[in-house]
Structures are given as C-alpha cells and as structure tokens.
Amino acid sequence: MSDLVHHTSALFLFEADQAIHTLISFFQAANKAVYFISKEEASLPKSVKHSKNAKVAFGELIKESDCAVVETKIGKVELRFNAFGLSYLKTCPEKEISEKPSRQALKVQNQLEAYFLGKRKSFQLKIYLPGTEFQKNVWAELIHIPYGKTVSYGELAEKVGHSSASRAVGQTNSKNPIWIVVPCHRVLSKEGDLTGYAGGLELKKNLLDLESDQMSLF
C-alpha cells in the first residue's frame, strides 16, 4: 500500500495506488482532510488536496477554519479553530455575538457554561497550541495543574526543567492563546499573590474563587 502518515486530523499520502481509495473514503467520511504530498499528479478524488510538500500541507491545516463570538458568564468570548481544534479563546467585549456559531463553537460554549456553574472541572476539547518547545512545555504543564490548586511561577519553571526561568514562564503564560481551558490563572507569585494575568487580575481572582468554592461574581 502507499506510504502514508496518519494524523488525528488528516491523512497524508506520499504515493497513490488503487488500494488507497478505501482509506481515503474512510477518512473523508469522518470529516478529516486528506493530502497527497507529491510533485507528481495522481488519479485521486478531487476532494483530495494536492501539495508538493508536507510543510505546505501542514500550513493549510493550521490556518483558521472557523471562528465565533459567544456569550458567557464573563462576557463575550472569541473562539478560533483550525483543523486540529480550538486554537484561541479570549474575551472580546467589543465584538458582536455570532448569529449562528458552529457545532464546535457551541461545544466550547456549553463546556464553559458548565465550568462557570461549578459543574465541570476539566474540559474535553481538542486544542492546538503553536509555539516554541519551551512554550509548549509550559502550557502542557498548565493543563496538568488540578482544578482548585495553584502553583508558583518558580514551581512551574522547575516542572519544565528550567528552575531559574520563572520570568520566562510568566512571559509564556501571558502569551497563552487559550484562556481557562489552558489554566494559566492557576499560577501565582512565590508569595501566593495574584500577579500578571492577561485577562486582568479581577478575572483571575474570580476564576480562582470559583474553583475554591468561594463566592465570586459568577
């Protein structure tokens, strides 16, 4: 059979033969993209995207494919998606609410609603976080901070193997594109003080109060 690479969001083909058509049909039935990576043309369905190199094909996958503005307990929130999943979640008070948000946008909105009501402590969402290796490591550790718990910037730096990089950790937190789902609000100063949150310290306090079962604006 043809050489191929299977990604959760796409199938990359590097050679085409008759046996591959069944696999293409299977992936397309699951709403996954199929790319043929070759300098040569091939007799494949028109829906298969042809690219001369894998880098270009991957670039297509990470392009924004859907966006929406939805109402939540903290106001309007902008959501962006690509082929890999949710890639952006931040408040946007100046934007208009989307009239017909997509199914994936509604899924995020519903999970946020449950979270703000105290009925959800984790999110079941596919996400995409582009960045440097250091940034990805920091964001991955954020996801592992349990609901209702906090860590210091120094502790987070140690977890990613850079004990002296607490300042860089703080800068990486400020660049987190997916608020709440990737819980950078759970990181405090070494003294336990609220510091540096892109969404504002009031929102950070409210989120932490919510997670510790204290009274909040929600």
Report the CATH C-level class of the largest domain: Mainly Alpha
> Largest sheet, order of strands side by side?
1-2-3-4
Measured as a percent range, the helix fraction is 25-40%
Shape designation: globular
In angstroms, what separates the terminal alpha carbons?
56 Å
The radius of gyration is 21 Å
Strand content: 15-25%
Question: Can you give the mean pLDDT?
Answer: 82
Domains (count): 3
Annotated CATH architecture of the largest domain: Orthogonal Bundle
CATH evolutionary superfamily of the largest domain: Winged helix-like DNA-binding domain superfamily/Winged helix DNA-binding domain
Order of SSEs: EEHEEHEEEHHEHHEH
- Unreliable runs, pLDDT <50, ≥5 residues? 1-7
The main β sheet shows up as: 4 strands, mixed
- Count up the helices: 7
Counted beta strands = 9
CATH topology of the largest domain: Arc Repressor Mutant, subunit A
Class per helix and strand makeup: alpha/beta
